[in-house]
């Protein structure tokens, strides 16, 4: 258990659901995936190889279509996707990274919901997610993640591989958590936060909305909205590695 005092107030309410082991949806769905970049390519691989879902097409904005197909599947204009793949028969997954502090992904997520699509989540079968943890929709939880009891992950959250989310922590909607991030217990992460690789968050703090916590940063107290933190640059020594006596 992470040390420190517990919060006196209850965790904020989130519209989330408890995931099943392996994936966040036990029953397989026919899925249209928004995106045609590397995040979409990875998400497609995970869904094909580690989920009950069947990806049937990709979708991007009409003016951004580069090819009629991607990974052997059709690419359809996002403006027309609900006509070609009706929301009563198909689900969607928005596979976009963190540009504009996750707001591009948030925009596509919101539009897909407005069209009537149900958005699936993927939780790797190689992640450790305790039954009392909760995960929202359109989440991408990669391998090696540990989500402790009573943690709550909101909607449209990306967790790259090997992160830790401590007990009773709340990660709100539209966040991106890069690989090996450690978020200790009783933390509140507000919406649209970006964490760089190996970021570390002390127990009991609040990370302000739209904050950027850079790679290797250690946060020990609450952060303000839209605050940006970067780690000090590494020091380049005046001697070369062959001069090290014990290495």
Strand fraction equals 15-25%
Discrete helix count: 3
Sequence of strands across the biggest β-sheet:
6-9-12-15-18-21-23
Question: What is the global morphology?
Answer: globular
Query: How many domain modules?
Result: 2
Q: Within the CATH hierarchy, at the fold level, what is the topology of the largest domain?
A: UDP N-Acetylglucosamine Acyltransferase, domain 1
> SSE order, as H and E?
EHEEEHEHEEEEEEEEEEEEEEEEEE
Q: Describe the largest sheet.
A: 7 strands, parallel
Radius of gyration: 19 Å
Instruction: Please identify the structural class as seen in this structure.
Output: alpha/beta
CATH architecture of the largest domain: 3 Solenoid
Question: Can you characterise this structure?
Answer:
- This protein is of the alpha/beta class.
- The chain has two domains: 30-120, Rossmann fold (3-Layer(aba) Sandwich), CATH 3.40.50.20; 123-225, UDP N-Acetylglucosamine Acyltransferase, domain 1, CATH 2.160.10.
- The protein is built from three helices and 23 strands.
- It has a seven-stranded parallel β-sheet with strand order 6-9-12-15-18-21-23, with helices on one face.
- The longest helix is centred in the N-terminal third of the chain and has 13 residues, at 38-50.
């Amino acid at each position: 258990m992470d040390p420190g005092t517990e919060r006196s107030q209850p965790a904020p309410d989130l519209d989330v659901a408890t995931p099943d082991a392996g994936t966040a949806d036990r029953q397989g769905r026919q899925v249209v995936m928004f995106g045609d970049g590397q995040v979409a390519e990875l998400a497609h691989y995970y869904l094909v190889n580690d989920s009950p879902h069947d990806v049937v097409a990709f979708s991007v904005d009409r003016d951004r279509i580069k090819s009629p197909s991607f990974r052997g599947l059709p690419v359809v204009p996002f403006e027309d996707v609900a006509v070609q793949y009706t929301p009563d028969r198909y689900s969607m997954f928005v596979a976009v990274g963190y540009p504009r502090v996750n707001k591009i992904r948030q925009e596509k997520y919101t539009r897909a919901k407005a069209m009537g699509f149900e958005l699936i989540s993927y939780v790797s079968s190689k992640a450790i997610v305790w039954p009392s943890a909760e995960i929202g929709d359109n989440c991408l939880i990669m391998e090696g993640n540990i989500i402790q009891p009573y943690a709550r992950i909101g909607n449209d959250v990306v967790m790259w591989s090997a992160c830790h989310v401590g007990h009773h922590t709340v990660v709100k909607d539209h966040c991106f958590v890069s690989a090996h991030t450690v978020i200790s217990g009783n933390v509140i992460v507000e919406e649209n936060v970006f964490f760089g690789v190996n970021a570390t968050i002390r127990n009991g703090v609040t990370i302000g909305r739209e904050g950027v916590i850079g790679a290797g940063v250690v946060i020990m107290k609450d952060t303000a909205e839209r605050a940006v933190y970067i780690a000090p640059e590494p020091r380049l020594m005046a001697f070369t590695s062959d001069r090290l006596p014990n290495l």
